[in-house]
TrEMBL record:
InterPro entries: Sulf_transp_TsuA/YedE. Keywords: Cell inner membrane, Cell membrane, Membrane, Transmembrane, Transmembrane helix, Transport. The lineage of its organism: Bacteria, Bacillati, Bacillota, Bacilli, Bacillales. Coiled coil: none annotated. This is Uncharacterized protein. GO terms for cellular component: plasma membrane. Pfam families: Sulf_transp. It comes from the Bacteria.
Length: 418
């Protein structure tokens, strides 16, 4: 049987950065210089006012954003490709990322390794109605909003205009979710948090081995699905060659997976908890609500942490990481000559509003997003991370039927095979 002379590809470049050519443009030097100046000013400010932890986290966040953009490392698109056409390449990169992460997290959590001696703890959360509903909502929302939590940040940094709308309503949804959270967590059923390491008797070595087996099983399943469905390949991305590729992309998914896992481990050892994103959105929205006279401090969500409402946002480590991700993505896009504001239409703006609200609200209910719950949870050996992934994938299947209503594309299988 002869092979096809042309192979259909999934347009990976458009998600989340609009760029059709596989050739990079010239570096946008004014933007690069401006970004470096902003980064330097922010770094000096953090050193002077917040100390070494926040300063280091800004640098880590910048590297996270740079990595995410250069690899177009997506969670939303990975779930969508698997659900729509059976392409599991991106999901396999998730498994590599998680395998490296658990390998690094296991000794860090077991022995309490920390740069600043304050101890470490992973993200281990309950499994209940709140998690199931929240992760499902997030799965639908990220497919409508055009990106997950990390995808939203790095797409904003890359200049994708509609993602500013997604981010705004992500913040709104997270704030409303914080207000409603006591109902979901206190009035509805849930099991106690389950750690594969500490709740099962496996210990961290046994939990690590079990995790690796699970990642291998998921990888094998994606290969079986691909063999059956023979999906289109992922499209080529704009890329430099040689050593310039480090600075101007694009990076292979497997390389980005390893770098993201390393940076998450550095985050754990720096601030004592893994990488997270959406708790900062709830903080930002709550602070704005305070300005308008809302008694945010009385919410159950803020009990025990009301001091954060009065402190500077730069005292919040997640906020600093988020700013770093945006700035890192901005520098990466400018280095590739790709920064450009994109067109906003009524349909994609509406989808962004709905998607942002669903993601923000769902993230609060599910104890995190694709980073805090899925990446951080699984890396911390928490059962809730796996449940989050399953429910978000279920939400993705539903969203495939909703995306065309807003003019959003859905990957299609090959029309024919030779």
């Amino acid at each position: 049987m002869a092979e096809a002379t042309k192979v259909q590809t999934i347009d990976d470049v458009k998600d989340p950065v609009q760029q059709k050519s596989t050739d990079l443009n010239k570096p946008q030097m004014p933007l690069i210089i401006g970004g470096l100046i902003v980064g330097a000013i922010l770094l000096v400010y953090l050193i002077a006012t917040q100390g070494s932890v926040q300063s280091l986290l800004l640098v880590i966040g910048l590297l996270l954003g740079y990595t995410l953009f250069h690899a177009r490392f997506g969670f939303t698109s990975a779930f969508r490709r698997l659900a729509s056409v059976g392409n599991g390449k991106a999901l396999r990169s998730h498994m590599l990322m998680l395998a490296v992460a658990v390998t690094l997290f296991a000794p860090i959590l077991a022995f309490g390794y920390s740069f600043f001696g304050d101890g470490v703890s992973g993200y281990v959360s309950p499994v209940g109605v709140s998690l199931l509903v929240g992760a499902f909502m997030f799965g639908v929302g990220m497919q409508l909003g055009g990106g997950c939590a990390s995808g939203t940040l790095y797409a904003v940094g890359g200049g994708r205009s509609v993602m500013f709308i997604t981010l705004l309503f992500f913040i709104v949804g997270a704030t409303v979710g914080a207000y409603h959270l006591p109902f979901w967590t206190e009035d509805l059923p849930a099991f106690e948090p389950v750690s594969l390491a500490t709740s099962t008797g496996f210990g961290y070595s046994g939990a690590w081995l079990l995790s690796i087996v699970l990642f291998g099983l998921i990888t094998w399943i994606t290969l079986v699905v691909e063999k059956k469905k023979r999906p289109p390949k992922m499209a080529a991305k704009p890329s430099a060659t040689g050593w310039k590729r480090i600075f101007r992309g694009s990076w292979p998914l497997f390389a980005a997976a390893i770098v993201l896992a390393l940076l998450n481990a550095l985050t754990l050892m720096t601030r004592g908890t893994p990488w997270g994103i959406t708790s900062a959105f709830a903080l930002w929205g709550s602070k704005v609500a305070q300005v308008f006279g809302v008694d945010v401090a009385s919410w159950g969500y803020w009990q025990g942490n009301a001091a954060a409402l009065d402190a500077s946002i730069f005292a919040d480590s997640t906020t600093v990481l988020n700013f770093g991700v945006i700035l890192g993505a901005f520098l990466a896009s400018a280095a590739g000559g790709l920064f450009k504001f994109s067109k906003v239409t009524g349909k994609n703006a509406t989808a962004s509003v709905i998607g942002g609200l669903l993601m923000g609200y769902g993230a609060r209910l599910a104890f995190g997003c694709n980073i805090g719950a899925y990446f951080g949870g699984i890396a911390s050996f928490s059962l809730h991370g796996y449940i989050w992934g399953i429910m978000a994938l279920a939400g993705t299947f539903i969203a495939l039927y909703l995306r065309p209503m807003f003019g959003l594309s859905v990957p299609k299988p090959k029309d024919s095979f030779c």
